[in-house]
């Protein structure tokens, strides 16, 4: 394992070095939080693909392939569909807004007062996403170094917190680009063909496994529908995804670069399912489907290649973890703390805000590591996060982009009713049930439409400013949201 260890150590040292280099570039709020909005198509595509394809997409995607066969691709496939929909239909408008958070977009569209409550929901989602990504380090470092769960989480989490705190989005962008390359080589170009060959090829795989393993819909229609609701719609509204859209240097870059990244996700989804199917042929009696990735890597790959593929898995986890961490810190600082203490954002102060955002990343990072150590049920935590996100925020965000008649009262009602409905239904049906997100989303939509129609339309001056911003003819937001005129 000495060669494999060397590969991993060099990779981790490289991540820290890029964090240090990124610190030299992040000299303003814009540079620190959104990489100066200067990413071109190649870097934008690579980093966007890196953040959406994390440990759940890699280790979990292979596990679903082990359990269900080719239809196990649907979870990651719906992530790719969501990214494609975001890129084609919404990313250009989002990029032109020149904001830092989803809540700032809601304030612009509705005239203020929607930010704090939506920020709390978004903060909970990004925190849980960072936590579940951090927990995934335990699986990888257990294979690598045979260390216990707590040490693995602290080791992996500390590296991510270190480079994210140092250089913010610039460090994360640079490391994500490397992680994208490592992931592509390790999973698509090495593990996929080796796994298929070791399993005897597709003909042998079909001969040894039940026919439902090769049914594209074998995982079940209801499961696929739930994946679409949670992951496809979740891609449309998550702060971690939007913050990457904000890094694009133009709306064209956001649209076409995101389309390339979404297409890459579709390929990655199929690859993970095929690898899992091959693992089922080779190791039909594993205790858990999530062991499939680590087992096939450890037992079937040659020295050196094994280290690179494990580095690819580590890259997948780190890219999602760092993206969720900076999103969580950005929301906590800009949407919650700054608003609660009434801090004004004036021209000329952006450079001074770097230190504050750096402190928030460090604090949120320590909170993420501590929560990850204490938390046992990862699936329940992630389900709760996505259900709250979709049930509470999908309607007011898409409603604001698509329906002129929506009002701030309707948006607040949608967030409150949808979020409370999801929590209440989870108490009745269980956290992992499908009903909470189904009925929570319907309740949010009903509240949004009813309350919006029952209240005064959004003031025309607010809508005019919103249209100017969408058209890209308004300067970047540097002041407190304008309150709704009385």
TrEMBL record:
Q: Carries keyword Chloroplast? A: no
Query: One Pfam family name from the record?
Result: SSF
Topological relation to the membrane, as annotated: Multi-pass membrane protein
Q: Which domain of life is it from?
A: Bacteria
- UniProt keywords, alphabetically: Membrane, Transmembrane, Transmembrane helix, Transport
Membrane-spanning parts:
6-23, 44-66, 72-95, 116-140, 152-173, 180-203, 223-242, 263-283, 303-333, 354-375, 381-403, 410-431, 437-455
Q: Which InterPro entries match?
A: Na/Glc_symporter_sf (IPR038377), Na/solute_symporter (IPR001734), Sodium:Solute_Symporter (IPR050277)
Residues in the signal sequence: none
Compartments, record wording = Membrane
- Asked if the keyword Transmembrane belongs to this entry, the reply reads yes
Q: Which family does it belong to?
A: Belongs to the sodium:solute symporter (SSF) (TC 2.A.21) family.
Which PANTHER family does the entry link to?
SODIUM-SOLUTE SYMPORTER-RELATED (PTHR48086:SF7), SODIUM/PROLINE SYMPORTER-RELATED (PTHR48086)
State the protein's name: Sodium:solute symporter
To which species is this protein native? Streptomyces rameus
Q: What is the lineage of its organism?
A: Bacteria, Bacillati, Actinomycetota, Actinomycetes, Kitasatosporales
């Amino acid at each position: 394992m000495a060669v494999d260890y060397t590969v991993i150590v060099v990779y981790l040292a490289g991540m820290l070095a890029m964090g240090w280099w990124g610190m030299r570039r992040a000299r303003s709020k814009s540079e620190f939080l959104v990489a100066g909005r200067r990413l071109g198509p190649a870097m934008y595509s690579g980093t966007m693909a890196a953040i959406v394809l994390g440990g759940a997409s890699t280790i979990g995607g292979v596990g679903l392939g082990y359990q269900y066969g080719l239809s196990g691709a649907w979870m990651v496939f719906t992530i790719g569909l969501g990214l494609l929909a975001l890129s084609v239909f919404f990313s250009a408008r989002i990029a032109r807004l020149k904001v830092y958070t989803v809540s700032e977009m809601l304030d612009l569209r509705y005239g203020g007062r929607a930010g704090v409550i939506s920020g709390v929901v978004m903060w909970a989602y990004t925190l849980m996403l960072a936590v579940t990504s951090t927990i995934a380090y335990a699986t990888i470092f257990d294979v690598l170094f045979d260390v216990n769960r707590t040490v693995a989480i602290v080791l992996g989490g500390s590296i991510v917190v270190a480079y994210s705190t140092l250089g913010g989005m610039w460090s994360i962008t640079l490391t994500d680009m490397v992680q994208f390359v490592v992931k592509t080589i390790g999973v698509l170009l090495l593990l996929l063909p080796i796994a298929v060959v070791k399993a005897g090829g597709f003909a042998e795989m079909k001969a040894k496994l039940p026919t439902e393993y090769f049914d594209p819909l074998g995982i079940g229609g209801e499961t696929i529908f739930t994946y679409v609701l949670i992951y496809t719609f979740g891609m449309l509204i998550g702060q971690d995804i939007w913050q990457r859209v904000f890094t694009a240097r133009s709306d064209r870059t956001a649209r076409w670069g995101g389309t390339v990244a979404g297409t890459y996700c579709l390929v990655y989804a199929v690859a993970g399912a095929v690898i899992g199917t091959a693992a089922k042929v080779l190791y039909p009696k594993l205790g858990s489907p999530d062991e499939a990735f680590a087992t096939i890597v450890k037992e079937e790959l040659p020295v050196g290649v094994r280290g690179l593929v494990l580095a690819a898995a580590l890259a997948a986890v780190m890219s999602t973890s760092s993206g969720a961490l900076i999103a969580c810190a950005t929301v906590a600082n800009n949407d919650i703390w700054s608003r609660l203490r009434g801090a004004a954002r004036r021209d000329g102060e952006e450079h001074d805000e770097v230190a504050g955002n750096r402190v928030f990343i460090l604090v949120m990072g320590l909170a993420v590591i501590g929560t990850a150590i204490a938390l046992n049920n990862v699936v329940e935590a992630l389900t709760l996060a996505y259900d709250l996100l979709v049930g509470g925020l999908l309607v007011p965000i898409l409603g604001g982009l698509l329906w002129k008649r929506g009002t701030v009262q309707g948006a607040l009602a949608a967030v409150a009713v949808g979020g409370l409905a999801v929590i209440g239904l989870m108490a009745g049906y269980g956290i992992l049930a499908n009903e909470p997100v189904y009925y929570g989303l319907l309740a949010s939509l009903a509240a949004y439409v009813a309350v919006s129609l029952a209240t005064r339309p959004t003031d025309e001056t607010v809508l005019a400013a919103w249209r100017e911003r969408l058209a890209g003819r308004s300067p970047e937001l540097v002041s407190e949201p304008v309150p709704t005129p009385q």
